[in-house]
Amino acid sequence: MEQSIENKLIKADKAFSEWRKVPFEDKQKLIAKAAEIFKKNAEKFGTIITQEMNKPISESIAEVEKCALMMNYYADAENILKPEKVDSEFSYSEVHYVPKGVILGVMPWNFPFWQVLRFAVPAMLAGNTIVLKHASICFGSGNAIEKVLLEAGFPEGIFQNLEVGHQAVKEILEHDTVKGVSLTGSGKAGGEVASIAGLNIKKSLLELGGSDAFIIFDDANLDEAAKAGAKSRLQNCGQTCTAAKRFIIDSKIEGDFLPKFIEEFKKYEIGDPLNKETKIAGMARPDLADELEAQFNRALENGAEIIIPLERVSDNEFKPGLIRVQEGNPILQEELFGPLGMVMIAKSDEEALQMANDIPFGLSNSVWTANKDRQLFFIDNLESGTVNINRMTSSDPRFPFGGSKASGYGTELSLLALKEFVTARTIVGNF
């Protein structure tokens, strides 16, 4: 391990010994100060995001503003980590929540500020310190976050950005100072990191891929669903874990809904990412575009039909595509990370449910129907961490976020996230 990286890990561990003693309310004040800096400079930081990974600037600014919103949620949050008294025959009868120490964050490029801060803020508020391994194209974002936290008054060593490649993760995670890891990324990366954590008996939290279903029935508001569906698939150029990727349409409304949906899809025209009117820009890297194009061709080889062709116009830009896919197509077992949607037709509620669940992933699903019984049927039976009714998926600081099946484990956001990287310590006995 490079000495500079080891020094940062040691610094994080030393900082932890003091940070864990800082009162919860004092940590909240620092989080509120940092939130204010992000909010006031949203355009400046948004420009960094856009320059690093091509997100349309309006979406980048919104990402930074959402970070500030989330941080203010935690700045005002109830302290659920106070010692809890338990009724018993003993004089000492409490549960204490003890922070674990240095936590490694392995974060992706698709939301370079949001993914980092939604993991780091509750972990730091719980008393842990953070070392970040960001995506290699997003070191500017990682450094900017570190600078803001220092400017807000966080002590040195509480949050440090490590400019290292993926090959360094194993050595960092195995280091004695590191007590846990949170990873957002692909299933392959998640499996590798979780196995290293497991072999070293360290806590891991994984937020992995998704292939979310967007299910539309005959009693839904079709205009609203078409607009929300296109946005859910194509925002961030389709590079979102919780994007709607499979559009399961009630056969009774195929003729009514599909033309509306196609019309909305075609409104997303490629533009300059630094123009605030642009709705879709290029993918983050050319190799990611290569991968999406290969998946598109594989889907066609296995019987998918083109509704709107996925048309590549540069090394990293596509005109968005839409394909009709039958059950059994191997592409349904993969995640499409880019501007390509899949359409499926269901003849009944039960068939729609079976289609929605018949994938390795379980991140989030969206169901569009006015029927209360039907809503409850899907709420009870969809295999995903989130179920949305008559709305597209979007995370909210107030609600737990996490997946099931191959989409990972553990909770981000909400008050529950405060307990992800703590140990529940039992104190029991007599004076």
Task: Give a written overview of the molecule.
Helix 2 (24-40) runs antiparallel to helix 4 and helix 3 (42-53) crosses helix 4 (57-75). The N and C termini lie far apart (48 Å). The chain has helices at residues 3-19, 24-40, 42-53, 57-75, 114-125, 139-152, 169-174, 187-199, 222-234, 254-265, 286-301, 349-357, 372-381, and strands spanning 84-85, 92-99, 102-106, 129-133, 159-162, 178-184, 203-207, 212-216, 244-250, 305-308, 311-312, 318-319, 321-324, 340-346, 361-362, 364-368, 386-389, 404-405, 408-409, 422-429. The longest helix is centred in the N-terminal third of the chain and has 19 residues, at 57-75. The chain is an alpha/beta fold.
Q: Any key phrases for this structure?
A:
alpha/beta, six-stranded mixed sheet, 13 helices
